[in-house]
Amino acid sequence: MSDQVKRLKISELAPGIQNVDALVNIVSLQRRELKNERGESVYYYGILGDDTGTISFTAWTFPQTVRIGDVVEIRKASVREYKGINRVYIDAGSEVIMHPGESMDVKRSYSQMKIKDLSTAQPYVTVEGRLSGVRQKELEREGKKTMMYYGDLEDDTGKIRISSFEKALKDGAFIRMEGAKVSEYNGRLRITVGSRTEVTEIKPTFTIGERLYDIHDINSPLGGVKVNGFIVSLGPKSGLVMRCSACNSRLDDIHCPDHPETSIVYDLFAYFTLDDGTGSIQCTGGKNALLGHIGFTPEEYTPENKTISRKLVASRLQEKLLGRAVFIEGDVTRNQSGTSVRISMLNYMDTDFMKRLEARMGADFQ
Amino acid sequence: MARKREFTNWIFGRELRDSRELEERPDEERAKPYVITPLGTRVRRVLFCGLVSQKNTEESMTRITVTDGTGNFYVSAFNSDFGMQSKAMADALEINDQVMVMGRVSTYQNEGKTYFNVNPEIAVRVDSVSMDYWRMKALHIARRKIYAIRMARNRPGSTVADIRDAGYSELEAESALRSIEKYPDYDLQEFESSIAAQIQPAVKEEHKSSKDFILQYIQANDTDGRGCRYEDLLAASQNASISQNELDDMLNSLGSDGEIFEVSLKRYKVI
Question: Average pLDDT in the A57-68 region?
């Protein structure tokens, strides 16, 4: 085999190719720390681009001086398919050579994805969904007033927060976005409509219904999911929470240090582990999702009601949650302590839900 | 680094009862061994629902037997520093209660036989809907494992990746290969039939419990005064989705509790 290596364009990169040499633009770049039984390590991932297209990459070694927008030459890399996406792998045997001062036009190509498959590893995508809860506010950017629209985008697999600068979002509309950007903020995925994103209104090709998930299948911070199982542990600090009615701060005492004259309000917080036989997940819930289950209305759940105590609330949570079969709906978040669901609704198991679950499980064997 | 939570296996009593293999983990010297079940499930923590069929309370320990219709789980809650709450939970249960138990499996061997005991972390009363929910999901989980094992048996040399590519999870694929290695001749068909019978609550609801059914049948079918015949009882039990193993367990338990006695070989009378 000849020592001379042919430089390839991104459109020519196919799974199985070894010894890849390509001149590329760094379209996106992220660093992630990995902790497992073998210790800690760091890897980089992102998108490479040139005038023929874009491709994802993973690098186990990467120069720390490289920034987004830089042009680099990559040598001795390989291409493999991972989860249906072609990806360039850069390892210890590869070279990354900077080409300072050079620029390169990138032909954007976006994979069409369902919301459940979105990840920051593929930050530019085409996605379709229905807009809901759209609000707008005026912001000042670079001395200019601009309108920001924000809300949720949902399809048949999940829900994600969406924001758009200048391009208006219409509540309830089904839209297709080409070149929208996926990012992660506060443990939740979100999608942003940028100046180069094309937004078109479409006729829906999917139905938005119940998004039932096995806990095992929850791999990303996805919104609007429904899971079921037994509550197998209840956090010891679950219970009544006091807040300042002025600043909403959580209080240990009945007086807020910043607003001592202001009244307090009762809130509720519970955290528990839900197990469905395929795995377990931490859940957190507040007053909206749980108050009814411990037998109080919002009007009754006040400091004026002297029958309510921390002990009573804790024991009711224990009685009404621990060991119960439930189905919950909420948003998955991911942070340093792991993945959890912030629940918006909790219901005890019922036969109607079981019928829907049975139908879904039955599909496994068809 | 946060310790990974031990996986909780939703399994039927029959799967645990048929287990013969243990796996010691050299990296976890002080931990209990894993039980490897015929479906290849690696078990240290279980979650199950069933009916309390026996209870024995002492100051230091409460033992309960929970039957899920396919077999018995023997549950022991100790009055230790760590177990006080679980003993209180077990103490609160009564015979014939429908319960959900999650706990750790401990094993002991005697005369070459392996016995299993569950130390509960939770033991609570549940309603019929929760029982049916657990049965439905446990059956689904078992069936997926059975289908993965069948696929791997039909394609010798299958790897985890091959089974995963067919739509199974990594855990299911690993279980399938373990099952083939440890229990190559296990009768999956018979096992599946025995657990599938549990998903017919309409049949079982006619009787408050298997125990009541068996007692009533023995009483009503002592036709010649020499006691109810085992063969007749077995046929009736199977029609009511009570397996032979469950019937045998129940006859032993009713005998020890002094509720029935064996008049002559395989003939029973209610006391």
Answer: 91
Residues A16 and A42 in one domain: yes
Residues B22 and B93 in one domain: yes
Q: A1: pLDDT confidence band, cut at 50, 70 and 90? A: very low
Q: Which residues contact B22 (CB under 8 A, 6 or more apart)?
A: B33, B34, B35, B36, B107, B114
Please indicate whether, in this complex, the C-beta atoms of B102 and A275 are within 8 angstroms of each other. Answer: yes
Whether residues A197 and A224 share a domain: the answer is no
Model pLDDT for residues A240-261, shown as the tens digit of each residue: 999 999 999 888 877 888 888 8
Asked whether residue A208 is domain-assigned, the answer is: no
Residues B168 and B258 in one domain: no
Q: Do A349 and B130 touch (CB under 8 A)?
A: yes
Residues of chain B with C-beta less than 8 angstroms from the C-beta of A279: 7
CB-based contact, A276 to chain B, within 8 Å: yes
On whether the CB atoms of residues A130 and A117 are closer than 8 A, the answer is: no
Question: Shortest CB distance from B2 goes to which of A276, A337, A349?
Answer: A337
Give the gap in angstroms from C-alpha A16 to the nearest C-alpha of chain B.
18
Q: How far apart are the C-alpha atoms of B14 and B2, rounded to whole Å?
A: 34
Give me A226's structure tokens.
């429904």
Asked if residue A125 belongs to a domain, the reply is yes
What is the structure's pLDDT at B1?
44
**ipTM value:** 0.76
Q: Are residues B81 and B186 in the same domain?
A: yes
For B31-71, how does the pLDDT look when each residue is reduced to its tens digit (9 = 90+)? Answer: 788 999 999 999 999 999 999 988 999 989 999 999 998 88
CATH number at residue B76: 2.40.50.140
B141 → closest Cβ in A277, A337, A348: A277
With contact defined as beta carbons under 8 Å apart, do A113 and A125 qualify?
Answer: yes
Domain count within chain B: 2
Domain span including residue A246 = 215-359
CA distance to A145, A166, A190, B61, per residue, from A140 (Å): 4, 12, 21, 69
Could you say which of B9, B122, B138 has the minimum Cβ distance to residue A232? B122
DSSP A150-175: EEEEE-SS-EEEEEEESS---TT-EE
pLDDT digits (tens, 9 = 90+) for A213-242: 999 999 889 999 999 999 999 999 999 999
Is the confidence at residue B202, as pLDDT, over 70? no
